[in-house]
Amino acid sequence: MRQFVLASALAAVSTVYAGPTATEKELPRRADALPTVTASGNAFWAGDTRFYVRGIDYQPGGSSANLDPLADADLCRRDIQRFQELGVNTVRVYSVDNSVSHTDCMQALNDAGIYLVLDVNNPAYSINRDDPARSYNDVYLQSVFATIDEFAKYDNTLAFFSGNEVINDKPESVKSAPYVKATTRDMRQYINSRGYRRIPVGYSAADVSQNRMQTAQYFNCGSDEERSDFFAFNDYSWCAPSSFETSGWNEKVRNFTGYGLPIFLSEWGCITNGRDFEELGALMSDQMSSVYSGGLMYEYSREGNGYGIVELSGNSDSVREEPEFERFASALSQYPAPTGDGGFTRTTSAAECPTVDGVWDIEEWGPSALPAMPDGAQKYMTDGAGTGPGLNGDGSQQASGTSTGTATPAPASGENVGGRPAPPMDMSVFALTGVVALFTFAGTLLL
Questions:
Q1: Are 220 and 350 in contact (CB under 8 A)?
Q2: Is 165 a catalytic residue?
Q3: Backbone phi and psi for residue 161, each to the nearest 5 degrees, phi listed first
Q4: What does the pLDDT look like over 337-396, one tens digit per residue?
Q5: Which of 150, 226, 267, 279 is catalytic?
């Protein structure tokens, strides 16, 4: 594949960095907590200042390792030092162990001025696009809510993702949409019921032209209790050499104008012809700031797919910086965040629910109805979720004795996947038909 050819070429000219360990060189520390980020209008705000996501996706070991990068203080400090060198303000983590504390790493991120966007799913606890009704159950939600419990206490938790690319270019995957949206609703309800600050909750979508706009409309339609706080999608359509117009980003800005919620890119960075990260110049310009709130470059560490900008050597402190590391740092320096309010839209408005048709096929539920929360999960709203099952629990996708709920109507409110041959990571749906049982009981990640 093209990305592996590029990976080999870059590796040949890479340089090795073996810096001091985290204990030998302490990271600079902040005297206070970062201001919490809120969603208002179609923008994010850190206090009274418009906030733009200028970040990187972070999952050392890749999806197959099934590891928590925020559970080991020494390892996360090793990488935080590089995040500071880059100049990012946000990292996205795809999978964490909700049975352990993350205080040390979250404090180190705070001290470095870095926020966290977190996926609440992991390989064993997620919505299965091939069997969404069965996988949406109280065992699954207990894991989701336990993750919220752990990370809601950190001021630099910026947002939660309820799913990643669950709806993709498989036409039948659209049937999972009501269950992912129900999970989004449940997460927002849990945050409110437990008295946590209002941490934004949204969905990370695949950039599929056939259903991109329907997906965006769906997560922003219905009652205020059911709508997401933001919408994000993974976009690899700007492949160098390109431009705002050639990439089609101008059309996406036009299509999302007036959407009414914050939008950002949860993954970006096409590698087809190498990367100079020039698209960051558009993302940070007034061409996009009235609609977009930045994005997360995919990804930090090289995991066999050609996308990483460093090569990590096991559990040591050896970090080999690829040439793209300096290019990304240079782009972040060259293209700062816009000043002022960026031309944001002050009002937050709901979208019309997409019409059920041959593409948006959720006929079982109709345009706006959602599954009710499983009966067994109701107690978490008052009692809390308790200790999470971690990354090696029995899993939830085949959990028995649970309820998938019944329809609860909500009041109605008034091309190809770009750039990359295949998605580099789908951390929300790992079990495929015929291997779900093996994955669940063995605790093995299948892609």
A1: yes
A2: yes
A3: -100, 130
A4: 999 999 999 988 899 999 999 999 998 999 999 999 999 999 999 999 999 999 999 999
A5: 267
